[in-house]
Automatic annotation (TrEMBL):
GO molecular function, one term: 23S rRNA pseudouridine(2605) synthase activity
UniProt keyword annotations, A-Z: Isomerase, RNA-binding
A Pfam family per the record: S4
EC number, UniProt record: 5.4.99.-
Lineage, top ranks: Bacteria, Bacillati, Bacillota, Bacilli, Bacillales
InterPro entries per UniProt: PsdUridine_s_RsuA/RluB/E/F_cat, PsdUridine_synth_cat_dom_sf, PsdUridine_synth_RsuA/RluA, PsdUridine_synth_RsuA/RluB/E/F, PsdUridine_synth_RsuA/RluB_CS, RsuA_PseudoU_synthase, S4_RNA-bd, S4_RNA-bd_sf
Protein name per the record: Pseudouridine synthase
Amino acid sequence: MDRLQKVIAAAGLASRRKAEEMIKDGKVTVNGKTVTELGTKVSPSDAIEVEGVRIEREEKVYYLLYKPRSVLSAVTDDKGRKTVTDLFPEVEERLYPVGRLDYDTTGVLLLTNDGEFAYQMTHPKFNIEKTYVARTKGIPSKEQLKKLERGVVLEDGKTAPARAKILSVDKKMNRAIVSLTIHEGKNRQVKRMFEAIGCPVQKLKRESFGFLGLHGMNAGDRRELTAHEVKQLRVLAETGKIG
């Protein structure tokens, strides 16, 4: 038995908080009866409708994708561009990306149909680290790296402390390869952080998400996460450690 708002959130219809609001507003029925009590628990056999729409309780699936360039982190696109869900034609479940990577950014991207899991993986309070490798125009100085690590002020607030490291430099081309580890997920955050220190990004890749990396994978490859990996990601979100 699960709480009703948890089931609604897991179906991807709304966040847990929004689901609670829908329940209180009388927009949810269980077995044909309107339910407004937040403590209500439901079983897999219960028929749940939200604003008249029946919830299909799919088996939960979890995938890791090595996102290629020129692919949109979305379910659909009104401009007809390829989306990450187009790369899973054989998957019957309704997948959606966990967070997003920019159109021209490559690397680790998770996809699922589990709304609660997606929330745990993306909300800043859970502090799951993501490591990016950027090719920058200009070679960051030690002081510029310290600014990244202390946090830089963007138009939507100051970024949290991060870890930054230069991996290689090309003095002739005046560029560098820099690793940056953050736990937030502001829109275009990594690119904006490098812009803020005067070293704009030319190329960007997310190398890891928590403990998940791209070992042995090429752009466009994907694999299903193991049950153990999903469990460990949940533990990481809840405790900050891998159990």
